[in-house]
Every structure is written in C-alpha cells, then in structure tokens.
Specification:
5-stranded antiparallel β-sheet, Jelly Rolls, about 90 residues, mainly beta
C-alpha cells in the first residue's frame, strides 16, 4: 500500500489518466470534481471515492482542496475490482 498527499488550488486539474491498481481517493479539505467519462460528480471533505484499475478518470478543484490517494495493491498483480463506488 502507498499513500500520497494531494493539494490542489482552485482551477487546478489532474489530467485524464488510469491506474494499474485500485485507488481510494479520500478528500480531507474542500471538494474535487470527478469525471470518468460517463459519470461526474463532487467528492467533498469526509467522503471517499474508490477507483478501479484501468478506469480512465480526471478530477479538478474549484476551491482549495486536500486529499489522500491510497494505492492498494501492486501493478501486475491481479486484483478484484471494487464493488463500492462511494462511501460517506
């Protein structure tokens, strides 16, 4: 497992990408606008979004935002996909 801190200022965006392993995105301050190409929505402080391996996605901040990305697994190791998309 690896944990990475993320801070975005208003207007900053993480370009579209995919991950090889499951990721939990936990917003601690502010709000992120998430888009996976078919669905979009906000993830606010105190919420967690689970992202399955291989899913294309992007997110941006409209306000000062801090979050943690928890990478759960190892690239190349087969894992089951997440069954829960969003947890409050």
């Amino acid at each position: 497992m690896r944990v990475v801190g993320l801070r975005l200022e208003p207007g900053q965006k993480v370009p579209e990408h995919r991950n090889a392993i499951p990721v939990a995105l936990i917003v601690t301050v502010g709000r992120l606008r998430f888009d996976d190409g078919s669905k979009q929505g906000d993830v606010v402080a105190g919420e967690m979004l689970l992202i399955n391996p291989g899913e294309r996605h992007t997110y941006r901040a409209d306000v000062d935002t801090s979050a943690y990305l928890v990478f759960a697994g190892l690239p190349g190791v087969r894992s089951r996909t997440w069954s829960l998309r969003r947890r409050r």
